[in-house]
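A reminder before we start the practical. When you read a complex entry, don't treat the lines as separate problems. The point of joint prediction is that each chain is placed relative to the others, so the output describes one connected object in space. Small molecules and nucleic acid strands, if listed, are placed in the same frame. In the example below there are two entries. Take a minute to note the order of the lines before looking further.
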Amino acid sequence: MVTTRPVSLGDLDLICRHREEMFRASNAPGRSDEVLSAMTRSFRVWIEPRLRDGSYFGYIAEEDGAVVAGIGLMIIDWPPHPSHPNEDKRGYVLNVFVEPSRRKRGLATMLMRLGEAEITRRGVSFAILHATRMGRPLYEQTGWTQTVEMSKQLK
Amino acid sequence: MVTTRPVSLGDLDLICRHREEMFRASNAPGRSDEVLSAMTRSFRVWIEPRLRDGSYFGYIAEEDGAVVAGIGLMIIDWPPHPSHPNEDKRGYVLNVFVEPSRRKRGLATMLMRLGEAEITRRGVSFAILHATRMGRPLYEQTGWTQTVEMSKQLK
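Here is the predicted structure of the whole assembly.
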């Protein structure tokens, strides 16, 4: 039986591991162990106060007493935009991770449903995420579409 | 002769007009005059304190005493990521607009060069933007690439 609970400060190491594993599994270029380790060290410092004050929130799924999946959520400040003309916030979904042995059973979809409902409950109607190659089909099936975001490494 | 200067609080209405015209020219679906007017009203309220405190910055290009183009910039809080493992910030470029009669003369490229340099000067090495159909080729020519961002209208 799978149960879910909100993330708490005690999940700090777990969330860092989920984020690192998520990026490692994506097999995207430029994601060496060295880069991922540096990212996780910085991310740990970044997320700790945000777990404390609740500006980073989300859910953990457990089965038979073991953590099997997780999702992170934030409400980010954003300029009012044609997709949300009367709101200056966007929901952001991040660190979606399912243990490899528990994949293809709908856990990510279940966590996404919880996450989307929580963003809506907080009065925010538009959300974004960045999809790994693995996550993309799942998001497409539930109404997420590609945006026109571009990026550049400046130095 | 084209000159550039930093944006100031006195450019509030101008920036709002640039943003609205930029979205109108993009011809993307869901951008009726009604939606754009609502967006601009909210955006005006949103940007005013940010122009005051400098968290929204950027440049205006002028030629013969008339404004011909503009660019907006922000440094946004972002979780450390494999593309910027030791930084918890991203540069954000927005509201890039060139008056229709002054297009195809390199004004946007000039403003982007200024903007990228200013983001770098502030110690931030990775930047994002959202490209309109019109802007996209220009950004591609200067090293910007598509990201994996996805979005969803939740209600």
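Discuss with your neighbour: Chain B has a mean pLDDT of 96. What might explain this?
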